[in-house]
Specification:
alpha/beta; Rossmann fold; 5-stranded parallel sheet; 3-stranded antiparallel sheet; globular; binds adenosine monophosphate; EC 2.7.4.3; nucleotide biosynthesis; Adenylate kinase; ATP-binding
Length: 219
């Protein structure tokens, strides 16, 4: 299956993507994670991306599209993938369509995670992420780790992302509304969008998502 996950920052895309990718046996491709890996490795690409990320802005398409394309060209993605955080504007969605067309394949579904704005702000303010694996995500109130600052899953250090500060979150939400939300209409015109509520327990949202993806998976 080839799936795109969309939703505002704090919707739980990373958390859900990890479970969904596992359930569907497809790789989870997150452009935000790819950028963060480049930053921690000190690559040129990381240097180019950093200032945009810290400001909560989108990294320019010239950088992002090439990076996403390289990742999707890897062998493990030949049979399908779950895209998390890409595309993030209509230009990227169009570029993805061209890429897929060149390969003679199509998207199966675009899963839209819906969550009210006040909930998003609460989720991001308390979010703590594992340095070893960004799919290990905790929340100080909703999903606290057993030991403060330590990942339950692997013992890694938990930290607050630089771009999770209140001011940057406001910019990221604005960027989401103005630049990313239009891709939902773009994909709706292709009949690909399934919308679910991202409220409630993580496992309940995963179950809801699997149910919503069933027709695309079976079709
Ligand atoms: P995320 O981990 O998905 O929240 O992404 C963190 C940051 O990485 C975003 O705020 C952007 O600065 C950058 N980023 C991730 N994916 C993209 C993308 N598809 N296009 C442009 N910038 C991106």
């Amino acid at each position: 299956m080839r799936i795109v996950l969309v939703g505002p920052p704090g919707a739980g895309k990373g958390t859900q993507a990890a479970y969904l990718a596992q359930n569907l046996s497809i790789p989870h491709i997150a452009t935000g994670d790819l950028f963060r890996a480049n930053i921690s490795q000190g690559t040129d690409l990381g240097k180019q991306a950093r200032a945009y990320m810290d400001a909560g802005q989108l990294v320019p398409d010239e950088v992002t599209i090439g990076m996403a394309k390289d990742r999707m060209a890897q062998e493990d993605a030949a049979g399908g993938f779950l895209l998390d955080g890409f595309p993030r504007n209509v230009g990227q969605a169009e570029a993805l369509d061209v890429m897929l067309k060149d390969e003679g394949v199509k998207l199966d579904a675009v899963l839209d995670l819906e969550v009210p704005e006040d909930e998003v702000v609460k989720r991001i303010a308390g979010r703590r992420v594992c340095r070893n694996n960004s799919a290990h995500v905790f929340h100080l109130t909703y999903n606290p780790p057993k030991d403060e600052g330590v990942c339950d899953a692997c013992g890694g250090e938990l930290y607050q992302r630089d771009d999770d500060s209140e001011e940057t979150v406001r910019t990221r939400l604005e960027v989401y509304h103005t630049q990313t939300e239009p891709i939902i209409d773009y994909y709706r015109a292709q009949g690909l969008v399934v919308t679910i509520s991202a409220l409630g327990k993580v496992a309940d949202v995963t179950a809801r998502a699997m149910e919503a993806l069933k027709p695309a998976n079976e079709g």
